[in-house]
Write a structure and sequence with these properties.
Serine Threonine Protein Phosphatase 5, Tetratricopeptide repeat, Rossmann fold
């Protein structure tokens, strides 16, 4: 039977060996030793803090937070404990909590140029409150896998925020939507379009949606959306959403083959430039809406495409509403009046 070589070592010796391994970049060995310390003293501040540092090093910011919190709760006089915790909160996207923690550090009596610098960074003269609210409204903090919602917990499609901001300024009640690929978008668009016809090839998605489909939605299962599309009279729809989990080049060609003259909403258009080229060569013009989506950490694009005469019909300057958080001068701007 092999004995544990660290079993009889005092904690201060284990910590010194762990720190040495950590500095040398031997992270697995360092973490093993830190965790050995925590088995004896789960609240050990240095071991908790340093495990948090290892988690940050490998991009596991959320996993680092409870370790930093424990370290700080044991010793609020260590400047680095505050700095590491605040840094991990920033990297995990929780600016609001990071800001509050930086102010708490000052109130706790920690006198440090680094802490003061962080406080200034998180509390600039131009406040970050609006940007936090903007991300919150977009759904960044409340959405979960399979559940995409805005800040009011209302179901929204996984389309770019800038597209949705524009979309809601227009009136769609007289329009009929053909949706290639069902999901959250089906529920959302049913609130705006006169009717929604949705083709879906995924059995699980279809069954889940069937249980809650609105009255103005006609949900159709098809093992091949492309085949179903070729059988459809597209003149019955003013708008088509292309967001199916199928070959989009084939879907696009099927639309062009039928000489469709309506409007196309095309998600992730930055990934499907050959499909977009097929449409533009057929006389469509593209208006791209680059933006962000809940659950995604990159900028993507949802485009609208249509023939010039039809594009004009959906770019109505008489907006039915403004996006949330937009501000309109109720008195009107004197610079907007000819003199």
């Amino acid at each position: 039977m092999h004995s544990d070589p660290e079993a009889d070592k005092p904690i201060h010796q284990l910590l010194a060996e762990a720190v040495s391994a950590h500095k040398d970049g031997r992270l697995n060995e360092a973490e093993r030793l830190y965790r050995h310390i925590l088995r004896s003293d789960p609240q050990h501040p240095d071991a908790n803090h340093n495990i948090g540092l290892i988690a940050v090093d490998v991009g596991e910011y959320l996993a680092a937070l409870p370790y930093f919190e424990t370290a700080l709760s044991r010793n609020k006089k260590v400047e680095q404990f505050w700095l590491s915790y605040i840094d991990a909160l920033i990297k995990s996207g929780d600016i609001f909590k990071a800001r509050n923690l930086s102010l708490e550090a000052l109130r706790s009596g920690v006198q440090s140029d680094k802490i003061s610098s962080v406080v200034k960074k998180l509390n600039p003269s131009r406040k970050l409150e609006f940007f936090y609210k903007y991300l919150q409204h977009t759904g960044i903090f409340d959405s979960e896998p399979g559940k995409v919602v805005n800040g009011d917990l209302q179901t929204i499609p996984l389309l770019t925020n800038n597209f949705l901001n524009w979309f809601e300024t227009q009136s769609w009640k007289s329009f009929r939507l053909l949706e290639l690929g069902a999901g959250n978008s089906t529920i959302y668009f049913s609130n705006f379009f006169g009717s929604v016809t949705s083709y879906e090839s995924n059995t699980e998605w279809f069954n889940n949606l069937s249980e809650k489909q609105p009255e103005n939605v006609h949900l159709i299962f098809s093992s091949s959306i492309q085949k179903k599309l070729l059988e459809t009279d597209l003149s019955n729809f003013e708008v088509i959403l292309v967001d199916a989990a199928e070959n989009r080049a084939n879907l696009t060609r099927a639309i062009v083959t039928q000489c469709y003259n309506g409007i196309i909403f095309f998600d992730n258009s930055e990934w499907y430039r050959n499909s977009i080229k097929t449409l533009t060569q057929a006389g469509y013009i593209e208006v791209p809406f680059f933006g962000i989506k809940p659950q995604e950490d990159w900028v993507s694009c949802t485009s609208i495409l249509g023939k010039p005469s039809n594009i004009e019909k959906i770019l109505d300057s008489n907006w039915v509403k403004l996006p949330k958080l937009a501000r309109m001068d109720a008195t009107g701007s004197p610079w907007d009046i000819e003199s």
